[in-house]
C-alpha cells in the first residue's frame, strides 16, 4: 500500500489574486449590464437574445435543443423555459427532429429575425462601449488568444 500524498494547495500569488478578482468582477457585471440595455430596447434578457442570435447564425436558423444548450452554456431546463417564453412572442418555434423522434429543433422565425435585426445595433453598440472601445487592436488580439486558452482548458 502506498501512503496518500498530501500536497499543499498552490495558493494564488498577489498578482494572480488581483487578476482573478478583476476577471470575476467583470464576468459577474457584464451580463447585468447587457441585460439592462436589451431589456430597455427589446424587453428581453441577454440570455434570450443569445439564444435568438445563435439561431440566426445556424443553417436554416435551426438548431437541435441540445446543441443550442451547449452553444449558450445553459442547462436543458433553463433553455426550455427561455424557449417557451420566446415561442409565446412568436420569435421562435419548436419542432420534432425528423431524424430522431426524441430530439427537438428550435427555429428562429421571421418575426424573431426581424426583432434581432432591429435590436442588434443597440446591443453591438453596448458591447463595443463595454469591451472593445477600451482595447487597442493588439489588446483585442491578446484577449482573444488568452480567452481561447482558458476556454480550451475548460472542457
Per-chain topology:
Layout (H helix, E strand, L loop, with lengths): L13 H29 L3 H12 L4 E3 H7 L4 H13 L3 E6 L2 E9 L1 H21 L6 H18 L1
Antiparallel strand pairs: 1-3, 2-3
List keywords for this structure.
155 residues, Arc Repressor Mutant, subunit A, 6 helices
Beta content? 5-15%
Shape: globular
Instruction: Give unreliable regions as ranges.
Output: none
* Helix content bin: 55-70%
CATH homologous superfamily identity of the domain at 29-119: Winged helix-like DNA-binding domain superfamily/Winged helix DNA-binding domain
Task: State the secondary-structure class.
Answer: mainly alpha
Number of helices: 6
In the CATH hierarchy, what is the architecture of the domain at 29-119 at level 2? Answer: Orthogonal Bundle
Strand order of the largest sheet: 1-3-2
CATH class of the domain at 29-119: Mainly Alpha
Radius of gyration in whole Å, from Cα?
20 Å
Per CATH, what is the topology of the domain at 29-119? Arc Repressor Mutant, subunit A
Average per-residue pLDDT, rounded, comes to: 93
Please report the distance between the alpha carbons of the first and last residues: 33 Å
Question: What about the largest sheet?
Answer: 3 strands, antiparallel
Say how many strands there are.
Answer: 3
Order of helices and strands: HHEHHEEHH
Amino acid at each position: 500500500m502506498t501512503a496518500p500524498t498530501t500536497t499543499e494547495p498552490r495558493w494564488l500569488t498577489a498578482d494572480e489574486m488581483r487578476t482573478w478578482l478583476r476577471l470575476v468582477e467583470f464576468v459577474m457585471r457584464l451580463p447585468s449590464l447587457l441585460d439592462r440595455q436589451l431589456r430597455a430596447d427589446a424587453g428581453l434578457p441577454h440570455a434570450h437574445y443569445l439564444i435568438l442570435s445563435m439561431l440566426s447564425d445556424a443553417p436554416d436558423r435551426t438548431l437541435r435543443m441540445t446543441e443550442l444548450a451547449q452553444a449558450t452554456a445553459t442547462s436543458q431546463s433553463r433553455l426550455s423555459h427561455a424557449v417557451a417564453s420566446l415561442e409565446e412572442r412568436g420569435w421562435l418555434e419548436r419542432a420534432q427532429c425528423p431524424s430522431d423522434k426524441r430530439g427537438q429543433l428550435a427555429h428562429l422565425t421571421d418575426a424573431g429575425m426581424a426583432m434581432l435585426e432591429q435590436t442588434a445595433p443597440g446591443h453591438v453598440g453596448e458591447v463595443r462601449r463595454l469591451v472593445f472601445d477600451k482595447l487597442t487592436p493588439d489588446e483585442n488580439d491578446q484577449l482573444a488568444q488568452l480567452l481561447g486558452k482558458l476556454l480550451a482548458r475548460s472542457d
